[in-house]
Amino acid sequence: MDFVKDLGRKKESKKLSHIENKNIIENYNTLVEKYNEINGFSQDVVEKHNLLVEKYNQLAEDSETEKRRYEEELRLQKDVTLRIESKFSELQKHVDRLLESYESLEKENARLEEVNRSLEKYIEIMDKTKKLPVKNERGAGRKKKYNQDHIDRIINLKNSGKEYLEIVDLLNSEFEDMQWGIKEVKYVFTRYKNMK
């Protein structure tokens, strides 16, 4: 159950924070302002270019030097227009990429919120479910070979000064349900002598 709760917390931590969403929106708004600024400037340049073309056509009969001056100004204006269009195109691509990443982040955020809601429902259901205690109805499992009577008898006999062989004979006569040996008696004594 703790694992499921932790998993839910880990998923929840992947949500976009309010600050990250705000930063993305501020970046987007800044790019839109730049876009509008460049767009306005490019329209001004196009209008100026058109005026220069009109003046040039009006001055077709004027002197050659005047024409050259206008031609140079037109060429310079055309270069500026091309640079603006290039910057405008780059900015538009950047805005498009930013919008795509923002939309994908919003989709991922919505998906993670849905996963988090399902995990919370699952945890709530699991918390309400009663846990059945583990039972050992048949008494299955390993039984202790030596009971407390065996241990107490061996320790008392050894502490009273009896040798292991004598203890074995006494145990075999007292506890007929088991067959005792010197190794077993030594094991029981060394294992349990400090527990009394």
Indicate the mean pLDDT.
79
Number of helices: 6
Largest sheet: none
Report the sheet-strand fraction. under 5%
What Rg do the Cα atoms give? 47 Å
| Shape field | rod-shaped
- Name the poorly predicted regions: 7-14
How far the N terminus sits from the C terminus, by CA atoms, comes to 41 Å
Care to count the β-strands?
Answer: 0
> What class do helices, strands and sheet pairing give?
mainly alpha
What percent of residues adopt helix (DSSP H or I)? Answer: over 70%
Written overview of the protein:
The protein is mainly alpha-helical and 196 residues long. Helix content is 77%, strand content 0%. It contains 6 helices and no strands. Helix 1 (2-12) runs antiparallel to helix 3 and helix 4 crosses helix 6 (182-192). The chain is rod-shaped, with a radius of gyration of 47 Å. The two termini are 41 Å apart.
Could you outline the blueprint of secondary structure elements for this entry?
Blueprint lengths: L1 H11 L5 H41 L5 H65 L19 H12 L4 H11 L7 H11 L4
Q: What is shown here, in short?
A:
The chain is mainly alpha-helical.
What key phrases describe this protein's structure?
single chain; 196 residues; mainly alpha; 77% helix; 0% strand
